[in-house]
Amino acid sequence: MNFKNPLGTLLIATLLFTVLFYNKALGINLLIYEIAVVLYLLLTKQLKLKGLNTIVITSAFLLTGILTVVHHSQLSFFVNFLSFVVFIGMLSSPQIRNILHVFSAGFLSFFTSQKVMLRDKLSITTVTGKNFGFRFRRFWLFFAPSMIIIFFITLYGWSNPEFGNFIQHILDFIGDKLSWFFTYVDFAVVFTILTGLLISSFVLIRVRHKKIEEIDAGHSDEMIRVRKEHHQKFKLTALKEEYKATVFMFIGLNIVLIGLNVLDIDHVWLNFQWEGQYLKQFVHRGTYFLLLALVISIILVMYCFRGNLNFYPKNRLLKVLCYIWLAQNLILAISVGIRNWYYIEFFALAYKRIMIVFFLILTIYGLYSVYRKVSQTKSNYYLIRTNAYALFLVLILSSMFNWDRIIARYNFQHSDNSFVHLNFLSELSDTSLPFLDLPLSTLELIDTKQSSKFGYDLQSESSFSLYKRIYLTPNDYKRKIARRKMSFKQRWEKKGWLEWNYSEDRTYDELFSY
After folding, report:
1. Which domain holds residue 355?
2. pTM of the model
3. Quick count: other Cβ atoms within 10 Å of Cβ 106?
4. Nearest to 381 by CA among 217, 225, 227, 208
5. Whether residue 73 is found in the same domain as residue 116
6. What average pLDDT does this structure show over 225-254?
7. CA 169 to chain centroid
8. Do 72 and 31 meet the contact criterion of CB atoms below 8 Å apart?
9. Averaged pLDDT for residues 329-334
10. Same structural domain for residues 439 and 372?
11. pLDDT digits (tens, 9 = 90+) for 121-141
């Protein structure tokens, strides 16, 4: 915290935030603010683009800011917020290697920076020069007694009507005198200013968390052999017995998993036939099982290779069994991928089906990192650090696409083979409207094909009533999309240039440029 004029910088940053965001939706204003933050930190040499970690995190922060303008999706905003916290954590403690610790440092810094802002006379002072933090603490010192006085005034007013009327007259008089305040004061401005002050202090008044730095510095990617003296008679053979028990366990686990994988290869890889059944349980059960199996696998490897068993001279068989176990988990992951492929083929795209793809990417990397831990004698810290970084990068990768547009376009393009869930599609974001707005004749043709392929009979009165209750009809869907188009048009035309974003601008042109 070495600023020449911290109060002036904080006020300017708050003013910039207020100008950009007061009564405005998020758009290009967010990117402008984030670019201004990075440029200021670079010019004041608080941010130095040295080291892979700093370059990656800074690039991720700016890239996700750009993606909020390009895609304007909830996912892009979430990942940008996550990157912002990680970015500030990296600035606070650039020597931290584990991105989970970096995020923790950034998250805690948000709260500690507010405390420093109020307390530190070098950061915030009143016009009279007196310490604001002292006044703030004195305010809270008298706050509780004031609340007690108000409580008893209220109680006495209830018990004595004359006293109550007297207090009411006083309150009415004060209310009349202050009515102008509530009439002319714009609380949206006050809220924006306070939010800008909090965010600006988070950026400018960063607080190091030495405890997190010490925890991170106390771990290494490499395992170190710890030699202990054992005075008990049977301790000398303990490592050998542990090795035998672990070998036995991995043999048993591999036998069980090989049976499951053989069945999956037969029924899922080679001989799967869709007969009209709903595949939700077919996919989700496998995914949940994979998640559980992967977590257990990592825990088992972390436990079994936690200490001197890594350095046991005759542990080659155990390592081979562990590699087989990891390879079988990879086969299990492929089985889930194939299940998900079938699900998409017959029931089109949806958020969870896309999430499974990214989950499988993380799974494959997780298995690879466990393999490296065993083969190169890495530590458990290495596993946590590398997989946390992989999760961060996968989140950024996932935010690089406008999934709502992709889902809408894909699902209607594959309506001849895949189920089209009009209810789900009608709830996608406004940016997907150009792909959702189909002619009624096209929707009716799709509906006829869907009825034939997926077995609901719209000519049957009982079947039709059930269908209408669960799924939108083409007419209902068309009316809903028409209402959404008009609502989007009105909202977009009211937005200013600071609220501009590429995705909605393109959507407006695609819908109304005729």
Report:
1. 250-378
2. 0.83
3. 24
4. 217
5. yes
6. 69
7. 53
8. no
9. 90
10. no
11. 444 444 445 555 555 555 556
